[in-house]
Amino acid sequence: MNPLLKQWTTPRETPPFNEIKNEHWLPAFEEAIAEAKKDIQAIVGNEAAPDFGNTVVALDRAGDRLSTVADLFFNLLECNGDDEMNAIAEKVQPLLVQYENEVYQDPGLFQRVKAVYEQQQQDSALQGADKILLDKTYDAFVAGGADLSEQDKARYRELSMELANRQLDFGQRALKATYAWTVHLEKDSPRMAGIPESARAIAAKKAADKGLEGYLFDLSAPDVNTVLTHADDRSLREEVYMHSSKKAYGDDFDNCDNIKTILKCREEIAKLLGYKHYADYALRNRMAKDLAHVYQLLDDLKAAALPAAHREIAELEQFAKQQGFEGVFQRWDLSYYMEKLRQAKFSLDMEKLKVYFPLNQVIDGVFGLASTLYGLRFEKADEIQPYHPDVQVYEVWRGEQFMAVLYLDFHPRSTKRSGAWMTEFRDQYVDADGHDVRPWVSLVMNFTPPTPEQPSLLTVDEVNTFLHEFGHALNGMLSEVEYSTLSGTHSPRDFVELPSQLNENWLTEPEFLKTFARHYQTGEPIPEEYVAQLKHLNQFMAGYLCVRQLSFGYLDMMWHTMPAADVDDILRLERSVFDTVEVLPVVPGACMSPTFGHLFSGGYAAGYYGYKWAEMLEADAFSLFQETGVMNPETAQRYLETILSKGGSVDAMEMFVNFRGREPKIDALLKRDGLA
Fold first, then answer.
1. 618, 471 Cβ separation under 8 angstroms
2. In this structure, are residues 330 and 238 in contact, taking their beta carbons and an 8 Å threshold?
3. Three-state SS across 447-484?
């Protein structure tokens, strides 16, 4: 009776979320793992000589139920998990790591894969996606320890188990630290001065939910950003900043030990496999290829951005003094005076802009853009069960072809980690019967929620985030690839952000904004002068914002190139990197690494530079749209055919050249940001 083990008869065979209970997960994992092992043994026991179909393709299709159960569980854990699910994850994680180790260290299975790989080296019979799948499969076995000695295989298994457990614990601690601290302000508190009415309503609801009068702020991203940007009370800004900057560092949720162990495990795994350090291991199948190319990009951007950042901060400090500021300009002053300087320079109050971006209209605008460019149609699918009452579900069509199920999850809750992301409950692929299995795509955000008085009104940054994540969704929904491990967003980490960051460019395009940006009460379109000013905002504080991203890229590379044995004082080492690109006074005790989930619980270890790498790609790619017309369906069709639909089935550089006509250049990015 376990719903996870039944054939689903729901619309589009989607998960019956309302039937799935926590007690179903562990039995489902156990059964799915048993089934997956049978699939593997069928491949190993095949008496026919190993070839691409009976070994590599069969392996790609093995363990379908396990993939489905795991994708469901871990995605729900991130966006709707509870303490019981966290406890289940601690039991499930070792089972999955053990299974994966058994697969990749199975000598019979590896010999079959190796035989196919070596035959390909001789006759080059496979081309295109087939060759990429073979190369990726062989690399996965080698990276999984298949070529190691028995002693080293045993050590690899120990390390991978410890690594998985530590990464899981890191994420759980960071989430708990986000909601462990709150600041409660009375209804008539002068400390609320400057906080917009929309944010007050949200804070009042949080307080009421806790049985309190007045207002309550926690360390979730919307609350922190609201206080740092709008609170006139400098002591409140400092208090929120200091607690936010020390999450999971030296408190009950301290992650420093996790960081050290994670780095130690990654380094030892890399060395077992013959690499100098984890960064070399991670870069082996990235578009950048090696450290030299990564540092060339970071250093070139630093040379252009750091002088600009110093000028911008000096201007901001001078502006603050003109506003009556006294003392040392600190990080908790940055967003506050950036907002005031932005208003002074552009006569653009970002808070007032929100009235033109009610969530429902933004959804219509984002959907409309996809319709114009790619011919997509979105139909509300109330018959498909969401995993939470807040979630909206759509069927996505292109002409008469069904493309995907799309889940939209917009607002914060205590069971959802911070940030925004796109994920898939199921990848696109072609099954053994030749049926095109379409994906279930999910977008998860933490946007400003509605209040009893008004709908959810998005900031410009939130609209930008929506466009970003929707770019990932397009990559998933438009995928037309045979193999699941190469479909959708299964492209190199430093290439996968190209579709998401490219989609951000339309935010400042008048042709796009006029389709949906209207006052939520009067229906008045966003004024033309606001649109013009938004265009100029692309270069506002661009040097500082670039340097901030570069600092994270340098930090990531430091953690994954230095000897793990030398990782002692997390804060000191973090500062040694940040000091090389610092433009503001150092805040004693502030440490971001213990909540840097991208590196220590996500998939961006030795890959955070990829955001800037992909930004170089997308700026160059969007320049072609600018040359031909930003709403030009022919250019969009070319982009769809060469990049969006290909996933990782084509070499990343080849995809870019097929679209742009040449290899990427950094010029368009520097020009757009005003750094050239």
1. no
2. yes
3. CCCCCCCCCCECCHHHHHHHHHHHHHHHHHHCCCCCCH
Among 467, 239, 446, 295, which Cα is nearest to 368's? 467
What type of residue is 580? T
DSSP-assigned letters across all residues of 548-612: HHHHHHHHHHHHTTS-GGG---HHHHHHHHHGGG--S---TT---GGG-HHHHTSS-TTTTTHHH
pLDDT at residue 537, as a whole number: 84
Phi-psi region of 226 (alpha: psi -120 to 50; beta: other; left: phi over 0): alpha
What CA–CA distance (Å, rounded) separates 125 from 131? 9
Of 181, 177, 178, 227, whose CA–CA distance to 202 is shortest? 227
Residue 597 has pLDDT above 90, yes or no: yes
The span from the CA of 427 to the CA of 115, in Å, is 28
Task: Please compute the mean of the pLDDT values over residues 436-459 and round it to a whole number.
Answer: 94
Identify the residue with better confidence: 419 or 256: 256
DSSP, res 506: G
Rounded Cα–Cα distance for residues 502 and 620 (Å): 9
From residue 413, alpha-carbon distances to 209, 221, 222, 417, 531 in Å are 12, 12, 11, 8, 32
Q: Is 668 exposed, middle or buried (0-12, 13-18, 19+ CB in 10 A)?
A: buried
- Torsional class of 672: left (φ above 0), alpha (ψ -120 to 50), beta (otherwise): alpha
Rounded mean pLDDT, 517-532 = 94
pLDDT level of residue 351 (50, 70, 90 thresholds)? confident
Residue 198 has pLDDT above 90, yes or no: no
Average pLDDT, the chain: 95
Q: How many helices (H) and strands (E) does the chain have?
A: 27, 9
Using DSSP, state whether 187 is helix, strand or coil.
coil
What are the residues whose beta carbons fall under 8 Å from the beta carbon of 31, sequence distance 6 or more? Answer: 2, 5, 65
Interatomic CA distance for residues 611 and 607, integer angstroms = 8
Cβ within 8 Å of residue 236, ≥6 positions away: 183, 191, 227
b or e along 70-98 (b: 16 or more beta carbons within 10 Å of the residue's beta carbon)?
A: bbbbbbbbbbbbeeebbebbeebbeebbe
Interaxial angle between packed helices 610-628 and 291-322, expressed in degrees from 0 to 180 and rounded to the nearest 10: 80
**Cβ atoms of 193 and 232 closer than 8 Å:** yes
Q: What is the largest CA-CA distance in the chain?
A: 82
Residue 376 and residue 148: Cα distance in Å, rounded? Answer: 48
Going by C-beta distance under 8 Å and a sequence separation of 6 or more, which residues neighbour residue 611?
497, 501, 549, 553
3-class state of residue 539 by DSSP: coil
Three-state DSSP at 62 gives coil
Enter the tokens of residue 351: 């808070």
DSSP state letter for 379: E
Alpha-carbon gap, residue 363 to 349, rounded angstroms: 23
The SS3 call for residue 663 is: coil
Active site residues: 469
What is the SS3 assignment for 423? Answer: strand
pLDDT of amino acid 349: 81
- State the pTM of this model: 0.87
Contact 260, 567 (CB under 8 A): yes
